[in-house]
From TrEMBL:
GO terms for biological process: ERAD pathway. It holds the Pfam family UBX. This is UBX domain-containing protein 2/7. The keyword Metal-binding does not apply. Residues 55-78 are annotated as: Disordered. InterPro entries: FAF1_2-like_UAS, Thioredoxin-like_sf, UAS, Ubiquitin-like_domsf, UBX_dom, UBX_domain-protein.
Length: 358
């Protein structure tokens, strides 16, 4: 007597018309990237991460930082909502059905997770839960709660989950527009606060396939993210260096002005009376942001000299398109007055000018 192969019997048992239709549809809608890598290498990488992390993290800890954000093809604008309670409901219901071993889902508004991920240079792993879909229970139990998936997500991503037809999860579903479930996505915060979808994973997948897709995304986007982070850091250093140079130039200018004032005070009084037009004018300049700068000018200098002094400060909020205004009496000094001397402008020994942006 020939014994039937158990796998053959199981396949025969599942090969009803409905099962065959579901299997065929699944092959059509599943859009997971499967690269030609040995799955065993990915699992080994995940296990190495588990060892490095020292086991599963407590739910009250944050995941360690990993890669920065990347801009891909943005979906329709995401509108954040206040549905904090529904996120707690999702987490409680998930743990009640599938246990406490799962990715660390942040029980807060999705936009807050996006901001935290941006600060820590991470992607967000988004999971939209469809309780009534037949593929949801096996995916959650066998894939999403698999230890290798949990450890890899917690080490490299910030995870957020919500029910696809309730509260904030429903708004996100309208934005990312899943075609089938289970649905996961790797997303990030765009420069204009939009939602950037980097990768979608739709339909049932194995733990190895999910880790493979997550790992591939990190490898493909990591170099571009590192370059963006380096460029941002270089710009920050350049801004600091420019500000230091401007401060040094201003300090030197202020010291020179003070020396000029000191020399003028030491001159004999009859010299000032003999030539009053050579007296200096101390001008206080007030900027739109409330900052003030002070410098001494000669009466023989022209209004243009004040503009050149302001431009030398390189303040980005001022730019080049502005005019100077005195308050009492109100007088405006612009392009037409550039060649007017301070003497002809009838400034006293002290004057205050306001910058008025055009």
């Amino acid at each position: 007597m020939v014994l039937a192969n158990p796998d053959t019997m199981a396949r025969a048992k599942m090969s009803s018309p409905l099962d065959m239709l579901e299997t065929s549809c699944t092959r059509l809608v599943r859009r997971v990237v499967n690269l030609p890598r040995a799955i065993s290498r990915v699992v080994d990488q995940g296990l190495d991460l588990m060892t490095a992390a020292g086991g599963r993290r407590n739910h009250h800890q944050f995941p360690p930082p990993s890669v920065p954000l990347h801009h891909h093809h943005p979906p329709p604008p995401y509108q954040p909502t206040n549905n904090f309670q529904s996120n707690w409901d999702f987490l409680a219901g998930f743990e009640q059905q599938f246990g406490v071993t799962h990715p660390f889902f942040y029980a807060c508004r999705f936009v807050e997770v996006l901001k935290m991920a941006q600060d820590e240079h991470k992607f967000v792993f988004l999971y939209l839960h469809s309780p009534d879909h037949p593929f949801t229970p096996p995916f959650c139990k066998d894939t999403l709660c698999a230890e290798v998936v949990v450890q890899f997500l917690d080490a490299n991503f910030m995870s957020w989950g919500g029910v696809a037809n309730i509260g904030e999860g429903m708004h996100l579903a309208a934005t990312v527009q899943p075609t089938t479930f289970p649905f996961c996505a790797i997303v990030a915060r765009g420069s204009d606060d939009s939602l950037v979808v980097v990768q979608k994973m739709e339909g049932p997948v194995t733990p190895e396939e999910l880790v493979e897709t997550l790992q591939t995304t990190l490898e493909e986007q990591g170099l571009a993210f590192d370059n963006a982070r380096v460029a941002k850091e270089e710009k920050r250093r350049d801004d600091i260096r420019l500000r230091q140079e401007q401060d040094a130039a201003y300090s030197a200018s202020l010291q020179a002005d003070q020396e000029k004032v000191l020399k003028r005070k030491k001159k004999p009084q009859h010299q000032d009376n003999a030539n009053p037009n050579t007296q200096d004018i101390q001008i206080l300049i007030r900027f739109p942001n409330g900052e003030r700068k002070q410098r001494v000018f000669s009466r023989r200098e022209k209004i243009e000299a004040i503009f050149k002094f302001i431009d030398s400060l390189g303040l980005p909020e001022v730019g080049k398109n502005y005019k100077l205004v005195s308050s009492f009496p109100r007088k405006v000094y612009g392009v037409d007055q550039m060649k007017m001397s301070l003497k002809d402008a009838e400034f006293g020994t002290e004057a205050t000018l306001f910058i008025e942006l055009i």
